[in-house]
Amino acid sequence: MEIKYDNNGLVPAIIQDATTKNVLMLGYMNEEAYKKTIETKKVTFFSRSKQRLWTKGEESGNFLNLVELKNDCDNDSLLIQVNPAGPTCHKGTGNCWGEDNTPNYGFFSTLEAIIAERVANKDTAKSYVASLFSKGINKVAQKVGEEAVETVIEAMDNNDELFLYESADLLFHYLMLLQAKGFTLKDIEAELKGRHK
Fold first, then answer.
1. For residues 88 and 65, is the Cβ–Cβ distance under 8 A?
2. What EC number(s) does the entry state (predicted)?
């Protein structure tokens, strides 16, 4: 792999969780750190403050286990996908921006958080979600069934706009049912991964 190191013999290395796709940290490698990373499968950096090689986790045990290493289009920065063995940041957080390293499903994660917040607020007068939850799990499950039937009906028709509308309704209500049962998309992902061979 061709790597263009800067005038100090370093290249930036962006560390990304191979599973969650979250960016965990930024470090720098020299040629020796790069070679050691490839050889040991543990991400090793060149510490600019200590002026020596530094394998992440050498003291804490929170290693960054190498999954894949890519070079960018200009060969002057690396994207390193890892399986972290514990928190990445020395402050104990999942990444160096003070955040947990949890899966993010884009807008679906936002929607899960909105549903949870509205359920917690219990404002049945202003929130459809709170109102439906207040009627109990049977009503939530019934609504998922209704939306599933409507989605199937629209799937057999030629109106793609209505099919997408009903599909969105189904998914929205399904997210509510998951929460009513104490689960999230993360649990569904784990189940599907367990089935994947």
1. no
2. 3.5.4.19, 3.6.1.31
Residue (of 9, 47, 3) closest to 25 by Cα position: 47
- Calpha distance 183→179 (Å, rounded): 5
d(CA 44, CA 10): 13
Number of neighbouring beta carbons within 10 Å of residue 25:
21
Residue 172 CA to residue 143 CA, distance in Å, equals 10
Per-residue pLDDT of the chain in tens (197 residues, 90 and over written 9): 899 999 999 999 999 999 999 999 999 999 999 999 999 999 999 999 999 999 999 999 999 999 999 999 999 999 999 999 999 999 999 999 999 898 889 999 999 999 999 999 999 999 999 999 999 999 999 999 999 999 999 999 999 999 999 999 999 999 999 999 999 999 999 899 899 87
What is the C-alpha separation between 64 and 41, in angstroms, rounded? 8
User: How many helical (H) and strand (E) elements, i.e. helices and strands, does the chain have?
Assistant: 6, 6
77, 11 Cβ separation under 8 angstroms: yes
Rounded CA-CA distance 125/117 in Å is 15
For 63, the 3-state DSSP assignment is coil
